[in-house]
Write a structure and sequence with these properties.
Blueprint: H1 9-31, H2 34-40, H3 45-89, H4 97-107, E1 114-122, E2 125-132, E3 135-137, E4 148-150, E5 154-160, E6 163-171, H5 181-198, E7 205-212, H6 220-223, E8 239-240, E9 258-259, E10 286-289, H7 292-300, H8 310-319, H9 326-334, E11 354-362, E12 369-372, E13 381-387, E14 394-398, E15 418-420, E16 425-427, E17 437-440, H10 441-445, H11 450-462, H12 464-471, E18 474-477, H13 479-495, E19 499-505, H14 509-518, E20 525-528, H15 533-544, E21 547-550
Parallel strand pairs: 6-7, 6-11, 11-19, 19-20
Antiparallel strand pairs: 1-2, 2-5, 3-4, 5-21, 7-10, 8-9, 12-18, 13-14, 13-17, 14-15, 15-16
Length: 551
Amino acid sequence: MKQHKIIPLRALNASTRCLNGEIRNALDLGRRTPVRAFFEDEEGGLIIFGLFMFVLMLLACGMGLDLMRLETARVQLQSTVDRAALAAASLNQELPPADVVADYFEKAHLSNYLGAVEVTEEPGLRNVQVDTTLNMPMHFMNLAGINTLPAPAFGAAEESIGDVEISMVLDVSGSMSRYNRLVNLKLAAEDFVDVVYSASTSGVVSTSLVPYATQVNAGETLLSKYNLGAETHSDSHCVNFEQNVFSSTGLTTAQELEQTQHFDPWYYDDELQLPVCRANPGVEILAWSRDPVEIKDRVNAFVAGGNTSTDVGVKWGNALLDPGSQGVLSDLVTSGDVDPLLQGRPYAYGVGDSMKVMVVMSDGVHTQQYYMKDEYRGDALTDTWMDDTSGTARYSIWSGNGAEPVAANDWQVPGNEFYWPHDGSWNNQPYGAADAERLSWQQVWARITVRYHADEHIQPAKGWAARNDILNSYSYVAPSDKNDRLISACQAAKDEDVVVFTVGLEVTQASGDLLKACATSPNHYFLVSGEDIGYAFRSIAGQINRLRLTH
């Protein structure tokens, strides 16, 4: 049996006390060592953390400052790029585009950062692209290993005429002969053409001239493409528009138009002095020309005379911009009257880069527009005969008291039924007998003014009632109605995004308000006097030659 030694309790307690004392002594010795004291000493510990946070904050603020410097430099560089590109892209700029860009950068003290300059030039277009190279040194971000950052600046500017169609609706009424107005208009219109066409080849710009007075003479060639019905004549080439046509831009070849009767309601003369539809070539429409010389020559041929019908001018201006006239232009190309390079015009509204512009100029208020009444127009025969076999026209007026003569000159009259105005005698046949021709209303009005015919021919032969009938043979459209027609025509153009500029030359307040309402906006209206009309036309030309800044 194993024997166990019994230790007295008193001895065990003494041993335990001894061991505990040794452990405490060992620990006390550990706290008193220098290394141990250093690591366990917590005094001043926040200073290190604070220094660390300060460095981080300094780096963050410094990055902000670096970025702000970078953006400031980029904005300055971009601004210089844009201004230099715009100036260099101008088609009126005669210096080499790259030199213009370099000059802008030199004056801005940024020449060291100018990169590539690419220039593209085509007829009617100049495009300039400017690139830069700027790497901004970083003052604070280099602490994070970022020494530089790029400041990208790129710009491109383009000046382009594009495909422009212009209608110039210009006043050549009688008042334009006063105070050098017509002279100033001609000079202004020439400058306009020079500015527009100098920035383009003539192939991308087409211009139609629409001179207007009481009426608009379309010219024989252009008017022949429209439907005038059976009642036509060759003395002049105007048409009477009904009220409803002004609310649209188009003028189709399908609709039947009424040709304006050729007559003179103003003068008292045995020959026409101022017909409502003026026949001289200097006031005919010039449709779709791309030749600046031709346009300026036609402008210089303008002659003033007649009343004012701006509404009719704008209607024709609209028609020559409307795509419904493509067939008319195509026919004129075929006949050799319009350049083949303009085939396909007028373009559809809003197509591609095409632009349609109408410039409307007037020096005054609307006045009456005269119409010959139906019963006094056309081929219907009159009581007037004429013989000009001697080289001088001799008229005879049948009184109507006997049986009406037949066209074959079988007079069937019992006595003296014909009055000869040239000598005031009565005879039993017209002057010239078988050589005399019975005239239609169309033929009478193409030879004699209305007032002269009424007083010198009709009244002596047929009395005062017949004379008054002749004086009332025509009617007129009132100025207030023409104002309404003008606003309708202008609104029709604006509804199709045609840019409408208007110029009032020495006009009244009322006329100016009407032209301002016609324009695309009040900023598209110019009120001028004297030679200042030239500034207005140059400003309009400059707006047409638009600059387009692209990024």
